[in-house]
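Hey team,

Filing this mostly as a record. A colleague (T.K.) asked me to run one chain through the structure pipeline before their review meeting, and I want the input and output archived in the tracker in case anyone asks later how it was produced. No errors, nothing strange. Just documentation.

Input sequence:
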Amino acid sequence: MSEIGTKRQKIEDALRDGFEVREIEVVDDSASHAGHVGAPAAGESHFNVRLRSDDFQGKTRIARHRMVHAALGASLMESIHALALDLDA
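Output structure:
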């Protein structure tokens, strides 16, 4: 499957639209969780995100996570089983 239109790409696009991004890496880690309870067979369920943005300056860890969740939106967040976030200014 092409990367264009994948959930990984949608996550990256939403974060680029929502933040002044200095560094971003979105990794689909679904294959590592295949067969686990709650992990859909189709994959695209577990993601690791590393994001560096000045928008996080002075924000608590919880505030940063809330900012990311808001940028991704309810629909995309509901379609993700697990989202590991490494966020810093």
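Quick notes for T.K.: The longest strand covers residues 21-28. The mean pLDDT is 88.
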